[in-house]
Amino acid sequence: MHFRIRPSVPSDGPAIVSAMRKAGLHPLKEERALYWKYWRERTDWSGPRSLVLTKGDEIVGHAGIVPGTLAWGDHRSSVIHVIDWAAIPEVALGGRMLMKYISGLADYLVAAGGSEDTLRMLPVLGFQHCGTTYRYVRTIHPLRYLTSKAHWNWKTLPKFGRDVLRTLGTPAAELGAWSSRQLALDQVQGVASVLPKPRGKTPIFERNLAAFSYFLSCPSATLTLHSMERAGEIRGYFLLSCVLGQARIVDSWLDCEDAESWLALVQCAVYAAQKLPGIAEVVTTEGDPMVSQCLRASHFRQRSAVAIQILTRKGLESPPSCPRIQMLDSDAAYHHPGFAEFWN
Q1: Which residues contact 181 (CB under 8 A, 6 or more apart)?
Q2: CATH of the domain at 120
Q3: Which of 38, 267, 312, 335 is 20 to 30 A removed from 299 (C-alpha atoms)?
Q4: What are the residues whose beta carbons fall under 8 Å from the beta carbon of 116, sequence distance 6 or more?
Q5: Mind listing the pLDDT tens digit for each residue in 184-220?
Q6: How many structural domains compose the chain?
Q7: pTM of the prediction?
Q8: Which domain holds residue 278?
């Protein structure tokens, strides 16, 4: 019986969830969230965002697509971050078949982290290590950790005491002339002039207003867009995602490069997160050295490292350096297994 790869349709939802669970993943399972993630129309991307591998009528593998544009200098190329990539154990080469198919859909494929099996397989498929990003966490309300009984063990109370002392010892933010403001859906246009632009040869993932409107409608997390302003002028933005007691800084940009301004952005994001109901911690991922230093200066703690790997289409040159990958460039901005997953 032959295998076939095709774009999925909404009626495939239950079979996709089943296949990913058999492969050891923990997919979103709510029908509304699945529809938004894979099949809701995006005006900035006309291609499919979910592909299935079938054997006869049975779905035996799946791969999700996060589309984007990678830019540096005068160069612009299509890029795909592959997510929810898995095949049932009985189909050993299913994952490879899906990845090979997807590699023909864009100039570059990017992968951030993954299971041990995934990390072993990616170099075999032609992916090359290009850099590292890191996970950062800052505790906001230690008492809220105690509400998650799933995380209780003998370390819980000592960690609680440590987090209380750290929180009490954190000084107030000094923002200088900077301030932030949450933007409503009909105010997204306000950040049009400060969307990311390449600086030299450092690759960036482009942003567009259509994508922001799409993410602000996410049903599985609450995303909010905030402008960064100085002297009444919008100079940048950050995007927060509120997911089960965790606030995630999933995207950020400023039209200036000095550390003092980026430190103000980080502190504004923390301040906005502190006002969200039920938040225990603020997290983000970052690979840029200067922004990482601003996070540490704002009392974020570095947790684990995440390897970034890129597959370049034959005939093209590899990007000159590792792009700045943020949580918005995968499903890390909104994904959750149905319960709180704290990074502390």
Answers
A1: 226, 227, 229
A2: 3.40.630.30
A3: 335
A4: none
A5: 999 999 999 999 999 878 899 999 999 999 999 999 9
A6: 2
A7: 0.92
A8: 134-304
